[in-house]
Structure formats: C-alpha cells, structure tokens
Write a structure and sequence with these properties.
Blueprint (H helix, E strand, L loop, with lengths): L1 H6 L19 H10 L2 H18 L36 H7 L1 H29 L1 H15 L3 H12 L8 H31 L3 H8 L4 H9 L4 H24 L11 H8 L8 H28 L5
Length: 311
Amino acid sequence: MTEPLLAARPADTEPEPEPDAAEVSGLWTDAWRQLRRRPLFWVASVIILVLLVMAFFPSLFTSIDPRATDLAGSGSEPGPDAIFGRDLQGHDVFARAVYGAGPTLAVGVLATLGTVLVGALAGLLGGFRGGWQDSLLSRFAEIFAGLPFVLGGIVILTTFNPPGQPVPESRLIFQVVTTITVLSWPIAMRIMRAATITAKQQDYVKAARALGAGPLRIVFRHILPNTLAPVLVYATIQLGAFIGAEATLSFLGIGLKDPVVSWGVMIAESQDRVAQIPHAILFPAGFLVVTVLAFVMLGDAVRDALDPRGR
C-alpha cells in the first residue's frame, strides 16, 4: 500500500526552501522601502543633514566670530565683506545665522527627547495598568494640556529666571528645554496610551501572558516595539514645532538670550529695526522657516510610510 504513495512523488523533487528571514519585511523594513521612493523624504533629509553639519561644525561655513562687532558697518547691507549684511551692533548676520543653528537645534532635539520620554513612559504605564493609575495620570496630564503654551512659558521662565539676572548659556538652554517638555508631554502621553491600549488586546500579548511572561517582559518585548510608530511620527513633526517654539519664547524675551546666539535671539534683537535693517531679521527667519518645513516634511513622509491606510 505504501509503494504507490512513494511512487507518486518524483525522485528529483526537492523540498521547497524556507523563506529567508531577511526577506520577511516587517513594519519598519516596509516603511523604509516606502520612504526611499519619496522625493519629499530625500529633500527633507538633505536639508536636515546640512543643518546638522552646520550645527556641529560651524567653522566649515564661516571663519568669522559671530560675536565680533564692527560698529563702523552697523546695519550695512549684504556685500562682499558680509554676504548677509550686518545687524545694528555690527555683527555679521551670516556668521550668527550659522552659529545659531547649534543652540536652536539643540533646544528642538532635547525638547523632543524629553517630551517623548516623559509622555511615552506615562502613556505606557497608564495604558498597560489601567484602573486608578490610568485615571490619575490622565487627569494630571489634562492639567498641563489645559495651559496655553505662551502663557505657561512666561510663567515658568520668569519664575526661574527673573528679568535682568545674568544666566549661563547651558542653564538658559536647560530652562527652555524643560519648559517646552513640561507643556508638551501630555500629547505624547495620549498617543502612547491609545497605542498601548490597542496593543495589549492583541493575541500575541495574550499568548505571552498565558505562557507566564511577566509585566516587564510583556511591556518591553511585545507592547513597546509595536507602539513606537505613532510616537516616532509625532516626535519628527514636533521637533520642527519645538524649534519654532524656541524662537517664539526668545522673541518674547523669556527664552534664550545674549550671549547665546540662536535664530530666535537674532529675530528678537532685530525686531525694532525691521524697516531700517530688514536683512538682519529676514535671513534668520528664513533659516528658521526652512528648518521647520524640513522637519514637518520629514514627519509627513514618515507618517505616510508607517500608516498602511495611506498607501
């Protein structure tokens, strides 16, 4: 009885090869494939790469001291000696714009990291534990979410940094980063909380719990990797928004201040002489707009790549 069955299989038939693990594309691999096909992603990436090089190695773009003054050339228009002209104090606008990329991007990146870390941890804890812990964290987040950003920034920064008191550069950056983080983390918490509640109801989490996996293993092994996508999209878009927030606070005189060189500080220093020295405010404002747009474009591209419904 067994011979016909054995004869039915050709002798030279080989078993089908198992799929290569490298060819099995997950969410992130598929998202990268989608990103590589988007010109918007490459344009934004090139702009951001140039800005990062400018922030870390400003001497590659200019050899002029951004704090050096030339009162004889105060307010001079763009020319061979100063391609972006000079501001009221005689500073080279191009040199200050180049060196201003460092503090501006530092505030944006650090504020984004702080917001995502605080908000993601709170949302992960509340969404996974549920019950009174989730309710307590949600009510606490609503307190900060209800604060207007500008008003909250004025209250926090003027409390810890009274006007007229000199403050070191590192402390100024820390204060601005902390203020933005305190006022922005509830949004990241809501995104992570919603993603965690959805993830913990999936079959792979129930199977891990049934097999005896502990809470920490379930959270960091199964839930966290599957909830990072929406938070990553939020962080990419908000990084540009936080750069704009730094400029807003500096423009109001409560953010970064001299001797810190940032685009927001340059705009604040030139606001009273826009009619007489327009180039002193147009060039840093242009750098700021291009940077914010680059991060927003990058965030849009990442969002479309990670959202299968948008394809």
